Amino acid sequence: METSFLTDLACGGCRKTYAADVLHNLCTECGKPLLARYDLKAAAATMTPDAMASRASTMWRYREVLPVQNEANIITLGEGGTPLVHAERLGERLGAKNLFIKDESLNPTGSFKARGLCMAVSRAKELGAKALAIPSAGNAAGAMAAYAAKAGLPAYVFMPKDTPSAFITECYGHGAHVELVDGLITDCGKIVEERKDEEGWFDVSTLKEPYRVEGKKTMGYELVEQFGRELPNLILYPAGGGTGLIGMWKAFAEMGELGWVGRKRPRMVAVQAEGCQPIVRAFDQGLPNAPEWENAHTLASGLRVPRAVGDFLMLDAIRRSRGCAVAVSDEDMIDNVREIGSTEGIFAAPEGGAVLAALKQLFKTGLADPSERIVLFNTGSGHKYVDNMQDLITGHDTHQGTN
Question: Is the pTM of this model over 0.85?
Fold first, then answer.
């Protein structure tokens, strides 16, 4: 397998650099996330079209620009290589012939979180971590528990008490130590922060270590390959912690240096819930950071993130791409989960329904053109949300698909 060309880490805020061969959390100078850097000139020499054509369809096909140094430390369950579905029937309803759904529900553990936690766990093991801890509202905890189990590392999970039961059961099923917290994911994060040093845990919280974003960025690499080395015009992404949006933006920059794509970039749209929309508010108000959202509530647990450590990175990507941030109601999420399912056969998570609801808003306001090549991200499986969605889905009349 090809060699990783990882060189070092750089703070996304103050740009201080760090050696990549030891465990790090946030920048010790400014408290911002650290981002991995690579020798992209060297990587370009082996990531040629002919070489890529012979590689397996997992995220590890991008080995040169991923951080794990020793192949023996790769902890894999077959993540990546998810389908890009041409949503023809749904697109016909919307008058959008070039509408696509990137369906991340087919990853191991049923969501895009498998990409990031696979990478974080693999790299943590490689660098000597003895136990892992995570605050999570759902899918991230299940993914961390699964990969930690595969790696033989103890997993400590902190989740809000009202997390859907499927996520909690999944963590127990993977042998994790689970603690349910009376509060939000931010309260869970405070517990991990307070206890990690004494307990000997390595914290793999969203963007509080450098490598989850490296797994998530592979979604961007896959999109470019699936479109024949081209980029879409518009990407709608459900953003809680925002690692995937940040990762894809990083991937597009890397691919520019690799010679895979030109200078043009997709417009990035961050989609949030009306009951928890710190990024939308910050975008609308022109703020560089997103203050914490009070009394956060939404049935889309992945979007119930009142404050994100990578807020400034998300906002930068949205603005530099000439994108925007949109909030949708829980009711609209469920209506659009039904529409995706009834037209394309994909049982989306509420977050997947949210991006379709947001696209309809953009069509109405003229911020998106139905003739564009558009990608909606369904980040997880609706099966894990049946406790939340059942009454809302079964209690509605059959969706008629009106726009």
Answer: yes
DSSP lists the bridge partners of residue 62 as none
* Distance (Å, whole) CA 210 – CA 45: 25
Which tens digit of pLDDT belongs to each residue from 248-307? 999 999 999 999 999 999 999 999 999 999 999 999 999 999 999 999 999 998 999 999
Measured between its terminal Cα atoms, the distance across the chain in Å is: 48
Q: Where are the domains of the chain?
A: 84-111+212-394
Please state, in angstroms and rounded to a whole number, the distance separating the CA atoms of residues 286 and 315: 9
H or E, element range at 237: strand 234-238
CA distance 167 to 187: 18
At residue 66, the 3 state secondary structure works out as coil
Report d(CA 137, CA 276) in Å as an integer. Answer: 13
Cβ 251 vs Cβ 221: under 8 Å: yes
**Spatial distance between the Cα atoms of 146 and 131, rounded to a whole number of angstroms:** 13
- C-alpha separations of 139 from 142, 169, 349 in Å: 5, 11, 11
For residue range 198-253, what is the model confidence (pLDDT) as tens digits?
999 999 999 999 999 999 999 999 999 999 999 999 999 999 999 999 999 999 99
Protein fold of 84-111+212-394: Rossmann fold (3.40.50)
Q: How far is CA 346 from CA 290, 304, 338, in A?
A: 32, 23, 9
Q: Is 263 exposed, middle or buried (0-12, 13-18, 19+ CB in 10 A)?
A: exposed
Q: Are strands 324-328 and 132-135 parallel, antiparallel or unpaired?
A: unpaired
Q: Give the orientation angle of helix 278-285 with respect to helix 311-320, to 10 degrees.
A: 50
Of 195, 254, 187, 172, which Cα lies nearest the Cα of 220? 254
List alpha helices for 104-233, DSSP H: 113-126, 139-151, 165-173, 185-199, 212-216, 218-226
CA 79 remoteness from chain centre: 13
Q: Please give the torsion angle defined by the CA atoms of residues 268, 296, 215 and 267, in that order, rounded to the nearest 10 degrees.
A: 0
The CA distance from 349 to 296, in Å, is 19
DSSP secondary structure code for residue 305 in this structure: -
Residue 301 and residue 159: Cα distance in Å, rounded? Answer: 11
Whether 25 and 10 have beta carbons less than 8 Å apart is answered as no
